[in-house]
Amino acid sequence: MTFPTVTELRETEFPWTRERIYLNHASIGPIPQRTQRAIDAVEAKRRDPGRFDDPELMGILAQARAAVAGFLGADTSEIALAPNTSYGLNVAASVLPLRAGDTVLVSDGEFPANVYPWLLLQRRGVQVELVPRTVTGWPDEERLLERLLDPRVRAVAVSFVQFSTGYRVDLDRLGRACRGSGTFLVVDAIQGLGHCPLRVDRTPIDLLACGAQKWLLGPWGGGFLYVRRDLVTELAPAFAGWMAFRGTDDFSHLTDYDPTFRSDARRFEMVTLPYQDIAGMTASLGLLSEIGPDRVAEHQRGLRGLLEEAAARGRFAIVSPTDREHDSGIWCVRPPDAAAVFARLRAAGVVASLREGSIRLSPHAYNTDDEVARVVDVLEGR
Ligand SMILES: Cc1ncc(COP(=O)(O)O)c(C=O)c1O
User: Fold this and answer.
1) How far apart are CA 139 and CA 239, in angstroms?
2) Is 191 in the pocket of ligand 1 (CB under 6 A)?
3) How many angstroms separate the alpha carbon of residue 376 from the centre of ligand 1?
4) pTM across the whole model
5) What is the 3-state secondary structure (H, E, C) of 240-296?
6) Omega before 272 cis (within 30°)?
7) How close is the Cα of 200 to the center of ligand 1, in Å?
């Protein structure tokens, strides 16, 4: 990594890295120093709100939509701000024109945030098909593609990266196939964005939901929904945020009601939003744009080399994909007694997660070879 270097990142943005080995971005991303400063600046004014004016607050939201759009390769008009991933997935499930007899495909093993909103549609007769995983436990992409041939299949909901295996779905291929069959593709991007490159101007996706609190290194409370331009005006929310309408452009005449939805993705927002968290998300996206998701991915691959060498010695297995088509920064490892080894990692100052029988390691741009070497020592019982 050239700019900022790993050392610069550790010193300027993540100074606590001197004390702890943090490999848990798939759970909670740390707040960079610049992001904390952005949050503090909004909160300082919040204590004395006379220092704010309405245009400034609206500006915080507008800057965030622009930052998300730039990061994703979207247009600002395609971005709705949201407090988390679930919000966007629930919007998707509630606004798509799905009727009784239609089928939504969901890969079995998805994180619950991308399952329950779809299961709720069963109340109106929509079928939800939990497509079984392959023997390795990864999403069965071939099966998903085959099922698109069934005309009852109207939507596919999938995570960019699976939370419990790190498997990265080939969204280019799935997106092209969905476009070809007229099937909506909804993506839960929270486990991928920030370390796996993705641009919606190259990859056909209809709706994409993401919280900022993991790989995007943003605060709790920041997130967004991307809605493909042509769909924005086709999809009318069945709920009403008060700023989703044209009638609220002029704050001095709010009771001149005009129930016409805005023509951009703000129609899907539920304002008031947490301004300090939204400003924090913008700052974190700025940092990630400087580093570049491609560089993050290559840095992680470099770090994983050490783990792969060690796994070849046979004391533990890597159960996540390690090929460039499907790998990610989530590495699930299985030593013989995962729970005991996990406790030893914790005692050695390594923060990771235990998920579905594996130890989940999830490094970011500022982790080092020395840190991974320390993890390997513990995994091999040293
Ligand atoms: C795939 C996936 N989706 C969603 C979430 C979280 O959703 P939300 O941002 O709504 O809390 C997680 C993890 O917490 C996740 O791993």
Assistant:
1) 33
2) yes
3) 28
4) 0.98
5) CCCCCEHHHCCHHHCCCCCCCECCCHHHHCCCCCCHHHHHHHHHHHHHHHHHCHHHH
6) yes
7) 20
Distance in angstroms (rounded) separating the CA atoms of residues 174 and 110: 16
For residue 250, what pLDDT is reported? 85
208 Cβ below 6 A of ligand 1? no
- For residue 235, give both structure tokens: 């999809």
pLDDT in tens, 301-354: 999 999 999 999 999 999 999 999 999 999 999 999 999 999 999 999 999 999
Q: In this structure, are residues 331 and 192 in contact, taking their beta carbons and an 8 Å threshold?
A: no
- Report the distance separating Cα 40 and Cα 42, nearest Å: 5
Percentage of residues in the chain with pLDDT exceeding 90? 96
Cβ(159) to ligand 1 under 6 A? yes
Confidence of residue 53 (pLDDT cuts 50, 70, 90): confident
- At 366, the pLDDT band (50, 70, 90 cuts) reads very high
158 Cα–ligand 1 center, Å: 12
300 lines ligand 1 (CB under 6 A): no
Residue keyed to tokens 């700019």: 3
User: How many angstroms separate the alpha carbon of residue 249 from the centre of ligand 1?
Assistant: 33
SS (H, E, C) 87-131: HHHHHHHHHCCCCCCCEEEEECCCCHHHCHHHHHHHHHCCEEEEE
Name residue 188's beta-bridge partners.
159, 209
